[in-house]
Amino acid sequence: MSFWMDQVTRGWLIYELTDSTVQLGLIRGVQAIPILFLSPIAGSVADRYSRKKQILITQIADGVMLAALALLILYGAVEPWHVYVSAFGMAVVQTFHQPARAAIMTDTVPASHLTNAIGLNSMIFNVARSLGPALAGVLISWSGTGGAYTVQAIFYLLATFWTLRLSDFEPGAARAGGHGDERFSLRGSIVEGWKFSWQNENVRTALLIAMLAALFIVPFTTLLPVFARDILQVGASGQGLLLTAMGVGALGSAVMIAGFGDRMPRGKIMLGGAAVYGLGAAAFAFSPWFQLSMFLMIIIGLANVCTHALVQTVIQTYSPPQFRGRTIALFHMSQVVMTVGSMFIGSLAALSGAQWAVVLMGSAGALAMLGIHVLLPRAWHIR
Question: Model pTM?
Answer without folding.
Answer: 0.70
